[in-house]
Amino acid sequence: MRIAVNTRFLLKGHLEGIGWFTDQVLRRLVEWHPEHEFIFLFDRPFDEAFIYGKNVTPVVCFPPARHALLWYWWFEYSLPAALKRYEADVLLSPDGFCSLRTKTPTVMVTHDIAHIHFPKEVPLHGRVFYRYFVPRYLQRAEEVITVSAFTKKDILDHYPVEGEKIMVACNGCREDFHPLTESEKGNVRERYAHGEAFFFYLGAVHPRKNVHRLIAAFDRFKQRTKAPAKLLIGGRFGWQTGAVKSAYEAAEHREDIVFLGYVPDEDLPRLTGAALALVYASLFEGFGVPLLEAMYCDTPVITSNISSMPEVVGPAGYLVDPLIVDQIAIAMQDLWQKPALRQEMVRAGRIQRERFSWDRAAATVWAGLERIGKKA
């Protein structure tokens, strides 16, 4: 079977959610199935590190697709031309887009439909594109894979898609994420938090991630406890960050809030593993990979009681209403003051994390490819 793959999110040094899913799943599929040929379709020059085996043929398809007009060009003209040229039997598209102009059987991975719930947080060109193409992509793909049961239900609630063609996979956790020794934790605290314990947030810094309420909650936690703890915020600033900046400027204890910016991949496991807790009170997630990473590091998790987050953390998470600042603050206070609670959450996390792995995600994707490959 000749399997074409949309690999435009494989960007060296810039792998994020979709990029990590693409990387980890493809590494396994290429290794597990040397008898099949994989054609990796990039939208820009690629790094050789992403060519995982001799059964991979890399192809660059112009143009670099990072705007709605270029998405249309790439998916409706460049991609179909490459599929025809290389006589692909199936297409795997792991980023929620596919092509309406090709007859090649398609497996598409949809990570979330956040644009439905937060349209104003999508640039206008993207909003128009999503509104028109996403329902058509979901209809067009022979197999749709989601990363959570929540996302499957969300799709079925908003689009006329046949439920039986949607499979649920998951995300996994890289091997770099594991518990730290007390000495290692101390070194991280010295480097990032002046030797103090810290709460950690990782993700984009914009309103949908609820960072402004996290800042307000941390300030309230500090006022109540007088704890020396810090709040470390890792991630790039997105657009529409006025609420975050206003919350920071209004915080009485803003000197204890540290914006780390983009955190290199090699630093993430140490920051996650050394944190007193991960605080991830997002307003919406299709999965929430940092939650799983924290559980693999034996780090307690405070997260939201909505969308996919309860599904991911199960009984291991401290669930809060993300719209209520005081609930987030009380959760932080409880974890600061109750070591036994932290230990119980760690024990629960060790059990919960076993439900999710990259092997399981890759096996689900392969099952979808096999099904449509047999029909082709």
List the helices and strands and how they pair.
Elements: E1 2-6, H1 17-32, E2 37-42, E3 56-60, H2 68-85, E4 90-93, E5 106-110, H3 114-117, H4 124-140, E6 143-146, H5 149-158, E7 166-168, H6 182-193, E8 198-202, H7 211-225, E9 230-234, H8 242-250, E10 257-261, H9 268-274, E11 277-280, H10 289-296, E12 301-304, H11 309-313, E13 317-320, H12 325-337, H13 339-352, H14 358-375
Parallel strand pairs: 1-2, 1-4, 2-3, 4-5, 5-6, 6-7, 8-9, 8-11, 9-10, 11-12, 12-13
Helix pairs in contact: 1-14, 6-9, 7-8, 7-12
Instruction: Give the strand tally.
Output: 13
Helix percent reads 40-55%
Mean pLDDT across the residues is 96
Strand proportion, as a percent range, falls in 15-25%
CATH architecture of the largest domain: 3-Layer(aba) Sandwich
Major sheet summary line: 7 strands, parallel
